[in-house]
Request: fold
Amino acid sequence: MKTLKNELIRLAGQIFRNTQYLKQYEHQLALIYSSTPETVKRTRERIDGLKMQIEADSRMVEKLNAQMIATIEALDDWRIQEILTRRYVNHESFEAIAEAMNYDLRWIYRLHQQGLELTNPLGDILLNLAA
Reply:
């Protein structure tokens, strides 16, 4: 589960960076459009490459999110499902989860650990399939 979450965070950062690079190249293209054809061509190629990378990363984020949800839904214990959903899908703190579920924080940690132990092999398999 943590492996999937880390990959989603990495991809979100990569999408953000590539989007910023794309804006920069588009701005650069606007400034040099009347410049040499070679400069315009190189800038256009960079823009096209970044757009393709952003689209690929966005598809991967959607796929990993769906796999993470499927992994959680495959668990038998509804409490673990709720904790993992709140933690990894809704990005809630453990304290907020404990309060919402009316459980002791230590109990939330224990159930969370059980969930990670149950999902870790599945998460690793799913992550390898996504690669």
In short: The two ends are 16 Å apart (CA to CA). Helices lie at 2-32, 37-73, 78-89, 94-101, 105-130.
